[in-house]
Give the backbone structure.
Amino acid sequence: MDRVNNSSTLLTKNFERLRTVVLGAAFISFARGALRAADRISDLSDATGIAIRNLLEYERAMMNSGVTADATGQAITRFYQSIGDGLKVGSETQKNFEKLKISIEDLETLSETALFEKAIQGLTGITDQATQTRIKLDLFGKTMAQMSPAKFAEELNKVRQNFNGAQDDIDKTARRIVTGK
């Protein structure tokens, strides 16, 4: 009986060690993934001029709209390239921007963030699905072809409300720490 108890105790200890190793490996994997995601967002921000906060909001809203995080980066990169293509007078891309009520002057003067959001807003006004899909393919690439711009706009508003609420909580906590109240 003692032999069975000793074996049972040894087995339990080995399972505990194994559990600790598995949890540690899972945490390391999670941390590596988080670092890769942070690097990806930072690189995308550097490449496009879109602030990291905006990219995070877009990514979350697109994911809530059925687009993967990787596809979000591809769509934003393609849109950034489309801005340059839209500056070519008479190009198909320039005509597509015009359909979204984005002029060449807008392309030259507005920030990438303002252009992105104006394009999404413009897409919500296009009721013909074939035209909308063609414009999405041209400006954002195939990753956004099936995404609803109205759903994205709705999700973006929700994400921003959540981010702003979290920021308010952080500000209140910081004030309490500074003032002691």
